[in-house]
């Protein structure tokens, strides 16, 4: 296994107040400890479609979806492949990912998913209204006679 050498001081040599590193700095810890999942959502026929970019995950093992109160919580974990080294300058993120997604009224709590080419597609049916929409204002003319 390859290890990276660097000339950066260890955390013990950092100035006071830096704590456990950059993850403890104000307003950055949440961004570094858990990332947001990039999504797009749209309506197709009578379904709400949510497409989530999740490359490098096993959807059966690493994804959790919870739907309640017109909200979906989508969580995932991207695991570092066995035998790979930690590159401090790498661009890949490994760890927890999450996204809270607002759902429109009428969205049913049942859903189906597919995963292909690193994209998770979630399909939720939108219930058809049981009442007819009001077609507008009705005016009845009355003779002034």
Brief characterization of the structure:
The chain has 145 residues and is mainly beta.
Overview of the structural elements:
A hairpin with a 2-residue loop joins strand 2 (39-44) and strand 3. The protein contains 2 helices and 8 strands. The chain is elongated, with a radius of gyration of 25 Å. The chain is mainly beta and 145 residues long. The longest helix has 5 residues, at 29-33. The protein has helices at 29-33, 59-62, and strands at 34-36, 39-44, 47-53, 63-68, 71-78, 95-102, 112-116, 119-125. The strands form 2 sheets. Strands 1-6-5-4 form a 4-stranded mixed β-sheet. A 4-stranded antiparallel β-sheet has the order 2-3-8-7, with no helix packed on it.
Q: Strand tally, please?
A: 8
Order of the strands making up the biggest sheet: 1-6-5-4
**What is the helical fraction, as a range of percent?**
under 10%
Give the strand content: 25-35%
- Measure the end-to-end span: 99 Å
What integer is the average pLDDT? 76
Uncertain runs are 18-33
Tell me the radius of gyration: 25 Å
> Count of helices?
2
Largest sheet: 4 strands, mixed
Per the principal axes of the C-alpha atoms, what is the gross shape?
Answer: elongated
List the quaternary state of the chains. single chain
Give the topology string: H per helix, E per strand: HEEEHEEEEE
Which structural class fits the helix and strand makeup? mainly beta
Keywords:
6% helix; 34% strand; 4-stranded mixed β-sheet; 145 residues; mainly beta; 4-stranded antiparallel β-sheet
